[in-house]
Specification:
With 115 residues, the protein is α+β, with helices and mostly antiparallel strands. The chain is built from 2 helices and 5 strands. The protein has one domain.
Length: 115
C-alpha cells in the first residue's frame, strides 16, 4: 500500500472506465468528468468493465503516479451510480484494494463495556 498523507482525499470515479488510458487520458477524465484537478494531491480510482482491474492516479508532489491492481479472483466492489464520484477513507481504500466490500464492513466481534 502506498503511504498517503493523512489529509489526502480519495475518490472513486463511478461507472466504468476504459483502462487502456494512461496518465494523460485519466487526468483528462478527472478534469472533465469529475471536475477536479488531477495535480491536487487527491487520489482518483477508476475501474474497468470486467471489474477485476482498477487504476489509481495520484500527484505526490513530484509527479503524477499511476498504480494498477488486478484481482486474481473476484471483482472490486463499486458504487451503483454510473456518473460522479464517491469519497472513501484510507481504511475503505485498503479494503477496496483487497477485494473486500468496503461499503458495509462487519466487525468480527462486538465491543463490550470494560469495567
Amino acid at each position: 500500500m502506498i503511504a498517503l498523507p493523512s489529509h489526502t482525499k480519495i475518490w472513486i470515479a463511478a461507472g466504468v472506465t476504459d483502462l487502456r488510458r494512461g496518465f494523460t487520458g485519466l487526468s483528462a477524465l478527472v478534469q472533465t468528468k469529475l471536475e477536479q484537478n488531477p495535480l491536487s494531491g487527491q487520489v482518483f480510482i477508476f475501474r474497468g468493465r470486467r471489474g477485476d482491474l482498477v487504476k489509481l492516479i495520484w500527484f505526490d508532489g513530484d509527479g503524477l503516479c499511476l498504480f494498477a491492481k488486478r484481482l486474481e479472483r473476484g471483482r472490486f466492489i463499486w458504487p451503483q451510480a454510473t456518473e460522479g464520484s464517491v469519497s472513501l477513507t484510507r481504511a475503505q481504500l485498503s479494503m477496496l484494494l483487497e477485494g473486500i466490500d468496503w461499503r458495509r464492513p462487519e466487525r468480527t466481534w462486538d465491543p463490550q463495556l470494560a469495567v
